[in-house]
Amino acid sequence: MVRKWIGLLLLIAVSAAALSGCWNRRELNELAITVGLAIDRAEDGGVRVSAQVVEPGEVASGRAAGGGGGNRSPVTLYSAKGESVFEAVRKLTTVSPRKIYFSHLRVVVFGESLLREGIAKELEFLSRDHEVRTDFYIIAAKGVEGHEVLDQLTPLVKLPAQKLFTSLQTSEQAWAPTYGVQLDELITSIVSKGKHPVLTAIEIKGDKKAGETQKNVEEIDSPANLTYSNLVAMKGDKIVGWLTMEESKGWAYITNNVQNSVGVIDCPGGGTLSLEIVRSKSSMRAESGGGRPSLSVDVFAEANIGEVRCRVDVSNPKEIRKLEDSAERKIVELMSAAVERSQQLRTDIFGFGEELHRTSPGAWRKLEKRWDETFADLPVRFQADVKIRRIGTTNKSFLQEVEE
To answer: What is the rounded distance in angstroms from the CA atom of residue 126 to the CA atom of residue 206?
Structure first.
């Protein structure tokens, strides 16, 4: 009988705990929903943290900037300085009427000055805080500080941080020289000894001051635009150099990150032709033989003809084979340029070291501590195989008749 009463009391206690609700619940009107975060080096040597917070009443349809009649910005930027990111975030409460809430974070922008010093300590907060999810993009500000990027109003998409997120996502899927890096991947690359990280850079094109005002969303041609500008190469947690568009695209081919892209190739008889890369598969090999590693990359790509600006008969299989040869040479040129730049910077941003570690652990142990210097002098063999699958809706371009 006593056991039954004890069991009943335990059941009541468990039920009461389940019905008590969430012990740490917070109402929505008590939170400042943060969609963008910028971290910069402060003048006094500390850090400056800027949070882009949503104005809920202004995001409603027809009221936000660019939405037809609203006079207030859809977001507010709060900034505070501290000796650490955590301290600066807490100090944001001195200017924000609500507690900063990070669970809806879309982008984190690091200022160029901090990137050159190293961002590992700042990433530690992002990886530790329980409210921070890891599905946001980390972006490098080029030529400006991070808070200046988040200070720009953007047309079409009401929330600037959301614009940065979707624009990078779309560009990565359709263009290739850009790449969305999230927190876990960045930290893994920083601590890896066989692969260094890359980030996509963001620039402010146009009148930066005008971009901070309502004028930027009231004109057809916005005075300022946030524009992604290829990749930045890092060594550990510091940037060491900027890659060009061609080098960035070459990096994407080598690392198997080309989902879809467009490339312009030379026609056999002069002029150019545009190809859409619809599929791409690459593989890299790092082998050890005779005490010196050998590196190689093979790429297979499928493409469609998107635009013809030359005299070529795309219905002729022999002409198609010549175009495929030209495309293969172009891809090899892109990859070669990327590796050459990476070797100049002495940073393996492709993961050749990781591949050597996987295939030849013994050789890797000998080269691990001086891998960057070893990689800088190693030749890399490239091979590309391109197949053109579709030529479009016409065989002979009407431009040939115009020229005749």
So the answer is: 32
